[in-house]
Amino acid sequence: MADLDPDVVLAMTEQAPDGIVIIDREGLIRYWNRGAERIFGYTAAEVDGRNLDVIIPEKHRQRHWDGFVAAMASGTSKYGDDDLLAVPALTADGSTVSIEFSVVLLTAPDGTAGHVGAVIRDVTARRAQEKETRRRLLAATPNTATPTS
Question: Which segments constitute the PAS domain (predicted)?
């Protein structure tokens, strides 16, 4: 893989259908690919230099920033390679989507945590389908509870 042209790698990240987002130590968006544009409805230019509050629902912001600050300070994340996080997110038009994502702390040249990267997938349609399947199963299940007198 050493002979892989870095421009090919960059083209892959730019064109990937999944969102790829990188934020800096201050929590500001520094990379936003076409997949992120598709998922969230913001162009890269619209979010460049903004913090992630643009996509984080207000009720989840404090928890996100507490975890972010702790991870940047310690240089480690409580989430491992096998962890897939699932949360609601906001889009440019104010609607909510369901996303799943993995995160990675990217080390700066001095060895500290310099950036955080995320690979994001919109799973809104799948979640709706799962919810409908659960609703149908519950509706088809006979009520086994007996009334009490």
Answer: 5-58
pLDDT in tens, 52-87: 999 999 999 999 999 999 999 998 888 888 889 999
Q: How many CB atoms lie within 10 A of CB 122?
A: 20
Vertex 28: Cα angle to 24 and 33 (nearest 5): 85
HEC letters along 26-72: CCEEEEECHHHHHHHCCCHHHHCCCEHHHCCCHHHHHHHHHHHHHHH
pTM for the model stands at: 0.84
Please calculate the CA angle 17-127-118 and round it to the nearest 5 degrees.
Answer: 40
Residue 34: count of CB within 10 angstroms of its CB? 17
Residue positions counted in the chain: 149
Residue with token string 């960059």: 10
Alpha-carbon distance of 38 to 32, in angstroms, equals 10
Average pLDDT over the chain reads 91
